[in-house]
Amino acid sequence: MISIAAVAWLGVKATTIKSELEAASQLIPVLKQKIADNNPQEAGAAVDKLRSHAAAAREAAGDPLWTLASAIPGLGANFSAAAEVARSADDVAALGVAPLVAVFDSLNWNSLLPSSGHTNLGPLQQAAPSISSAAHAVRTSAKRLSSIDSDSLLPQVAEPLARAREQLQAVTGALDTAADASQVAPAMLGANGSRSYLLMIQNNAETRASGGIPGALAVLSLDKGKLTLGAQSSAGAIGVMSPVFPVDPEQQQIYSERLGKYMQDVNLTPDFPTAADTAQAMWERKTGQRVDGVISIDPIALGYILDATGPVKVEPRLVALAGGGLPAELNGKNVVRTLLSDVYSQIEQPKIQDAYFAGVAQEIFTALSNGKANAKRLIQGISRGTVEGRILLWSASANDQAVLAKYPLSGSIAGPSISPAQFGVYLNDGTGAKMDYYVKRTVQLVKECAQDGYAHVNVRVTSTNTAPPDAATSLPEYVTGGGAFGVPEGMVQTNIVAYGPSQSNVDTALVDGKKVNFSAQRHSGRPVGAVMVRLAPGESRTVEFTFGKIVQHTEPQLSVTPTVQALKDVVLDTIPAKCVPAA
Q: Alpha-carbon Rg of the chain, whole angstroms?
């Protein structure tokens, strides 16, 4: 009789735990929406309900009889796992979510965006400890759940445990990012004194590994959140560095000493910290000013910012420089074509082109500093540009850079931001012109069957020159290059560089299915293969690198040079291996 009562009591507690955790889970999307809607009061109410449900589940799991049942050999593991899920849910709600929402309520997010006036960054600085504590609490809960052996659990327990692990893993990453941002953002926004950054606008019409050839340059200053645009110049105006700035031997072997000779070539390497450090040194040698960091952005990301600020009017004198052939107003839809194509057909002289680019940059960042941007759209646009590799950031502060290095925003090719099975495809123009506006590319990983216990992956890059058949005569000489570097007008030459995971090898390279000689090097422990291709108008070619002896058994990841194309059109889904099981 007692055993029947005990089972019934445990059944009641199990039902309570299940229903309370489900109620708490249903509040998560509500809470996310309230935060997205910038509604702190209703977000706080949702947190109160969330904490109530999580606490009720934990209380039920802390029942003495439930604790006793956890000690039963075999079956007891299920009671123990359910109790751990309930405890973790309560810890996350009380120690993680609640403090974060309280911080959210204390911040005026619009005021934290760069503007023409000083911003009180104190609340963000004061919030940093709470955000860090919340991240620690959630990370601790995630580790506890990960330590549970789920192989012997009943499906009714194993499945909720798997969901909880997945959800906590995602939250842990987001909170760690928020904690890192809260630590470095105030100082980088000038909370403790003005910070200056060299703004480098990359031109994707002439590819470089991190995006495009550096064109317009400017100094952005941030002082307590106040954004000002200072001295403007161009990469060409920086001139030739003599003596050449030294770069590490590995990169010089792959990309030549041009990395340290011309501002236009600092980003022949895909490693942005190297490019930015060199750009900082070049700017200082030329101007005498030592900036605190370097920000890189391309016209596609400028389009995302214009989606947030709304259209900007181009100064009449700049429109006049183009003979009235360029739009008097730029927006998110026309800025890419204007800056990467039309400007070259309308303005022949490079110095006037540079003046136009500088004027456009001035208008866009003036709109930003005047607070014209919709905060939510601006954050979305900057986030999108960062994910696509179109916005990169480097800091001369070792402490700040150590934090940035954890994230793709740093543009590093090695270190904590790089996944174990990381591949990369990087493009460098060899035409010496602006023909990459007309090149369409796709990049795809193709898994092969394992050999001798090692994974093998092919990296496939297909390029098509979509320029008109009469490009040699119909396009401006500045766009075609006029054959100045040995590439016939209308053709496009590209150096395609592929990186594999550390410790692997690059074994072969094929062009249109035929084996070719290629350059094989190493960069920070990663194998590097390079092949040059040349395309006539309308021509397509496929380059395929084979990487072998891959020791990593995680899902491969792929980074590519951001181009004029949308990233979703460039990176194709990985093709899985079709292997015959061993007999």
A: 28
